[in-house]
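Entry 12.
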Amino acid sequence: MGYERRFNDALLQPSREHFVDYMQDDQPLKPANILNIVATNQGKRPLTAAPPKAKPLSAKQVAQLQADGHYIVDCRSSAEFGAGHIAGSINVQLSSSEFEQRVGWMVPDDAPIVLVTGKDADAQRAIYNMAFIALDSQVTGFLKGGMDAWMEAGKPLATVPQIDVHTLKHKLSTNGLQVLDVRDSEEWDEGHIDGAHFMPYTSMVQQLTNPPQLDKLAIRTDQSVAVTCATGKRSSTAISILKRSGYHSVYNVTGGMKAWEDAGFEMLDETGCVVCKVAS
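Predicted 3D structure (tokens):
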């Protein structure tokens, strides 16, 4: 099965309802990118007939494009993003099986995109995957040479400290560190950290009919917050949104709630009952 057939198969259904099911698996929000896919299905936007190619860009070009309003999507791992990234970029890991869908959730409809990857070849893989939901046309290009080229050009880096679950548990018992869980409601109900705040990462940005919900988060921008999800990927995406919104002291919980559970630390279900007792 060739590229064109695979691409067309991903765009066969023109109805919004079917695409929401494909995209969200019964999630209530509708991503802004749904309008992009519907327009492509209806023939209002051209369908890519050949594998798309991402254009290489210099660090100087990327900096100017970002200043002009382009969204920087950093496709590297949470750890690589945390070690050093372009300030204001959004971390959506290419390693995720939901990469293109998550980009569709995080980036506004019609927003131009510049990719940052660990290897230049990964940029081609990223734009190829993005084509399955009609996002490839929004990609202006990728940072050639990645963050090494960015640093060689003398550009500044932003970082996100990583925190393991053992350190997190210790900090929770010794200071006022806040915890934010950005998973889906079903995951939250199955087990979460006592006293944690809850907001799905998809609610942090504008969706088709829903405005950003960050103003409802009961955590001040000057407070320290550890962000967790299932394994540490969505939390890094959420952190990149939080940092764009003025939060300064944020930590990514490596391993997420899976690591917390594996450590035998206590969790509460939706009723407040303990579902996992601390290991003795």
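Annotation: Confidence is low (pLDDT under 50) at residues 1-27. Residues 162-276 form a domain with the Oxidized Rhodanese; domain 1 fold (CATH 3.40.250.10).
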